[in-house]
């Protein structure tokens, strides 16, 4: 599932007052939409990114093996939603990255997933029970920021959490569609106790095939199908991670876009 990693980023802010300080805000996915390039994330992550910021602070975009620091005047927020509850949001935001040297660096080392596509084939191919999902993000409890003389060193833990669509996992409320996936905390797994930091991260769906002669599994078509923004408490060794689903991220949210 490494093919999804080049689209996935963490987002944060480097303080102009303290170069040793990185304030993390969440995760996101590099996307393009209507000729614009940027980061699709959760609305509450974008709010956290701006909280307490100054005009001189840099926006940190953390990839799986490096970070790029954007000048603040190169990032424009498009408010796609106005959340009314933590549990169901709606909770989406788009951080557009204007042309600049750092944007060219991002495009040279990462990929942007196009949201300019018809959702009908995606709904046919990736909504059936049994469809394999992968939620991507940077859980903060596994990441560390260590100060060094010239700034800081960031150790990022990139999580890919697998799910399967089960009955009643896809729901609709007030015109928005949602996907909620179960995480089972058995003794053998190593899931983080908190998914804090993965909010805003992408949810990917994939078709899995099996070679009849060798029995080897392979991934066929895949697509970005959602954005995570909420986690439930762990009860009976289970928790649900909730995100916006296909219609919300490709169509519905953009009718509400505000610069």
Word description of this protein:
The chain has a single domain (2-256), classed as Trypsin-like serine proteases (Thrombin, subunit H, Beta Barrel), CATH 2.40.10.10. Helices cover 11% and strands 43% of the residues. It has helices at 43-50, 101-109, 119-125, 246-250; strands at 8-14, 22-33, 36-41, 58-62, 67-70, 75-79, 93-97, 113-114, 132-137, 144-148, 151-155, 159-164, 170-173, 176-184, 202-210, 217-231, 238-244. The strands form 3 sheets. Strands 1, 2, 3, 4, 5, 6, 7 and 8 form an 8-stranded mixed sheet that branches. The chain has a 7-stranded antiparallel sheet with strand order 12-9-15-16-17-14-13. The longest helix has 9 residues, at 101-109.
Helices and strands in order, then pairings?
Elements: E1 8-14, E2 22-33, E3 36-41, H1 43-50, E4 58-62, E5 67-70, E6 75-79, E7 93-97, H2 101-109, E8 113-114, H3 119-125, E9 132-137, E10 144-148, E11 151-155, E12 159-164, E13 170-173, E14 176-184, E15 202-210, E16 217-231, E17 238-244, H4 246-250
Parallel strand pairs: 2-8
Antiparallel strand pairs: 1-2, 1-4, 2-3, 3-7, 4-5, 6-7, 9-12, 9-15, 10-11, 13-14, 14-17, 15-16, 16-17
